[in-house]
Amino acid sequence: MSTTLTSDLFRRFRDLLLTRSGLYFPDHRQNDLHHCLMSVLPATGCTSLEALYTAAVASERVLHTIIESVTVGETYFFRNASQFAALRDRIIPDLIARREAIRSLRFWSAGCSTGEEPYSLAILLRDTLPDFDNWQITILATDINAGFLERARAGVYGAWSFRETEPTVRDRYFEPVEVARWRIRSDIRRQVLFTRLNLVEDEYPAVMNGTSMQDVILCRNVLIYFDDETIRAVVRRLYRALTPGGWLIVGHAEARSDFFARFEVINCPGTVIYRKPLNAPLFDETAVPPLSPARTTPVSLPNVSSSDVSSDLPALPVALSSSEPAPVRAADADAQAFDDLQAARQAADRGDLEEALRLCATIIQREPLRAEAHLLTGQILEQQERFDEALAAYRRAIYLDHTLYLASLAMAGILQRTGHTDDARRAYQRLLRSLATLQPDAPVPSLNGATAAELQMFIRNRMAALGS
């Protein structure tokens, strides 16, 4: 069967990749796409490019195999030294001055490839941030390529990844594992949370996947794969994901002024970086039209038991008062609750937090035992820095469903952030014991694909920051 990439078939593959991943292949790159498609034929079991296209339309697995073949993982530690110098000399000092009171910082490596970028950031923060252990640092690392994420989590690199790294840095933060191979130190690896995310889909910024209220976003050498319409949509979302005064770093070839008109342009030696104005609204309600169909799949939570929930959690009312509507069938109630929760999440994600809280309160009044509504309430209250109320909401969510690990993690984070060290340590320990009931490579419910082992490493790093 034919392995020729005809003009018509090229256009169909090009449009499929653009719609589903944002990856753009102009006409002059037809041969590049042909080479990539031929390389994945054996792995997919297809015998022709026509059959491969049909399979890609029908199967997410086949489509992701193609996406992994056309994305380039070429990167190295401290790539573009001038940008890391800007982080060290301009951005981090600015953040220290503005965040000293709460000692909490959030970073996002959007398009992290095989992990060199977020690990470089973690190393830089350790070397630069005074009293590092007294700060709560979150480094989120996302990529569309699942294969890259696996390599990033492993944290093992060859000599080529260190071609612009001082040997002293490699010796301090890596350990040799074989000839010309080094593994990132475990305490550095635990600082970074890796998860899959497609920048083209309208899944961010969102409280549910940790992509909102970022202080710094690195999105370097990612936009070059997109067409202009996609770039503008992605940049609008990244703008919304930043806190006022937050920083965006893109690749040197991506710094076109018309894409970043809403940002302040900051010139640093050897590079240009972008800053969201300090006087920007805390939440930007400007909608970003989706470039691909939104996927709203309800999360199925396994029934994992635990005896670690605190006994002092308040009992919640079970019966509805006589003034409330008559009960509906369970299936109808579940469908209605899911729709209402989606509406509340959408309100929160567009910045209308009061409307989101109102919707959550309506759900809880109707169904007091709906754990996800208490979880979302806690997330919204935490964003408003109403920490006592957020803690109460998280405790109710955990009481109702022990498998809402995100609630446990958020509760421990608030306790740590507000100086309740002993309580935070106990909350982390309970969470570790609960995670021990899962297989190490099992995805953690409510945490967007992070594995149990990965979350355990992240928690131990948080506990190490608490001290003895």
Write a compact overview of the structure shown:
With 468 residues, the protein is an alpha/beta fold. The chain has helices spanning 7-21, 30-44, 49-58, 60-70, 81-99, 116-128, 146-154, 167-173, 186-189, 228-241, 330-349, 353-366, 371-383, 387-400, 405-417, 421-435, 452-466; strands spanning 104-110, 136-143, 156-158, 174-178, 181-184, 192-196, 214-219, 242-250, 264-268, 271-275.
Any idea how many domains? 3
Q: Could you name the ranges where pLDDT drops below 50 across 5 or more consecutive residues?
A: 285-329
CATH class of the largest domain: Alpha Beta
What CATH architecture label of the largest domain applies?
Answer: 3-Layer(aba) Sandwich
- Helical fraction equals 40-55%
Estimate the strand proportion: 5-15%
The global form is globular
Give the averaged pLDDT, no decimals. Answer: 80
3D architecture notes:
- The chain is α/β, with parallel strands linked by helices and 468 residues long.
- It folds into three domains: 7-70, Orthogonal Bundle (Chemotaxis Receptor Methyltransferase Cher, domain 1), CATH 1.10.155; 81-275, Rossmann fold (3-Layer(aba) Sandwich); 330-466, Tetratricopeptide repeat domain (Serine Threonine Protein Phosphatase 5, Tetratricopeptide repeat), CATH 1.25.40.10.
- The protein has helices at 7-21, 30-44, 49-58, 60-70, 81-99, 116-128, 146-154, 167-173, 186-189, 228-241, 330-349, 353-366, 371-383, 387-400, 405-417, 421-435, 452-466; strands spanning 104-110, 136-143, 156-158, 174-178, 181-184, 192-196, 214-219, 242-250, 264-268, 271-275.
- The strands form two sheets. It has a seven-stranded mixed sheet, sandwiched between helices. It has a three-stranded antiparallel sheet with strand order 3-5-4.
- Strand 7 (214-219), helix 10 and strand 8 (242-250) form a beta-alpha-beta unit.
